[in-house]
Design goal:
The structure holds two protein chains of two kinds. Chain A contains eleven helices and no strands. Chain A is mainly α. Chain A has one domain. Chain B is α/β, with parallel strands linked by helices. In chain B, the strands form two sheets. A six-stranded mixed beta sheet of chain B has the order 6-7-8-3-9-10, sandwiched between helices. In chain B, helix 3 packs across helix 4, helix 3 packs parallel to helix 5 and helix 7 packs across helix 8. The longest helix of chain B is centred in the C-terminal third of the chain and has 18 residues. The chains are: A mainly alpha, B alpha/beta.
Chain lengths: ~270, ~250
Amino acid sequence: MSLASYWYAFSGILKRESLRFIHQRSRFFSSLVRPLLWLAVFAAGFRAALGISIIEPYDTYITYEVYIVPGLVAMILLFNAMQSSLSMVYDREMGSMRVLLMSPLPRWYLLLSKLVASTLVAIPQVYAFLAIAWLFDVEVPQVGLLWVAPAVILTGVLLGAIGLFISSFIRQLENFAGVMNFVIFPMFFMSSALYPLWKMQESSEWLYWLCRMNPFSFCVELIRHALYGKLNADALLVVSGCLVVFTLLAVLTFNPERGQIGKPNQR
Amino acid sequence: MTHSSQPLVEVDQLGHCYPGKQALKQVSFNIQAGQFHALLGPNGAGKSTLFALISRLFQVQQGDIRVNGHSLRHAPAALLGNIGMVFQQSTLDLDLSVEQNLDYHGCLHGLSTRLRQQRIEEELARVELLDARHKKVRALNGGHRRRVEIARALLHHPSLLLLDEATVGLDPHTRASLNRHVRSLCEQRQVTVLWATHLIEEILPIDPVTLLHQGSVLASTSAHALCQQTGTTSLVEAFEQLTSRPPPTDGTNL
């Protein structure tokens, strides 16, 4: 297969993901409602309780709303990744995954293309959220709006790979929500998305270390720094490393024999 | 290139196990280029497993399959480029249009934009659905959806078309029409067809047929020769004799 074939395949997958997203308008709005609720309600309630000292990448004291916006951007990506994993389990159950897998291109390329395409679909959601956050006086420097794009793509693909890896072990669609609850909530709450980790350390040392080791914390910090035109090298290194590891794991453990087409009684 | 004396498809000692169940046992048979070859077997015979192996959805555990000389074990990409598939269960995206579904398939097979447009028009015209190209698949009836799937499977010009119980759920008239259409592909475009079915009415006496039962090939010859070998007067009787069970039928003739 020529290089052009690889491009056509990726463009086809991206087009399909975009069309499916456009057809599910409610998905766009619900993806915004969730972080906006946190920003408008949760942040208002906790603003007084949680004082934020001057921490990187901020140059001065900030409001709690400003602090949680990067975490909420990561939250959009987290839910988008899980939605994408759900759609892959659904496709596997319903059989439409077979169309993708019967392409003569390598399977790793097809799966990676799907992960990247799902992430690119999330980018308008991120920018729409940042635009609304601006109405809440959370102003991001213009340079940050550019820098955040690669951070969002890296984070989105990593979270998508984690979702795909986990979905490899889900035999039935019905089990998906239950399993994901054990992934999404610990991942989100045990991170620096809602509170700086030094605050967690004041409460519990071991919990602090759990949060510190959570790849999602590094995703949040990568996005936080990128939004202010700065690079967090540690976060970039960890996110990139995890991306490689989880993509490999997702591809290696991917097994179309699971689900509908793998049930002997269906033969 | 396909040599005239060499079969286009060679299924060689193929075996496959599910946990606790042997689905295929040393399955071997050949298909000549341009043939309409029927794969007959009751539900649970192993037809879909065989198709899943040919289309690389399952990993080959034992044996090998060669299509146009390309081995599934050694050149899976070349093999996949040579086959088009219509699955038992519809794999069309209901919320996309007919054209968008075909375009997606063309992209996955590395066809350029221009070539995709040209082939989509050609294939939809052949199945008489060019006017429905902008319709959502959800708006089509079962027979038309099957035609779209056939058009899609042929978009990249494969030499082998696999149809896994493609007429399941269709009314007798639509089944017959679909069967005729696929046969015409063999005659007019020299496409080789492997037609899996559990319905004997879909097989003509001149058709080469492989009879699969409980994961094993009981016979692989023409339907007519099968009757002669078993000393029976119809494929129904031959099936009954070989499998010791009455054949599934819906009582209609094509």
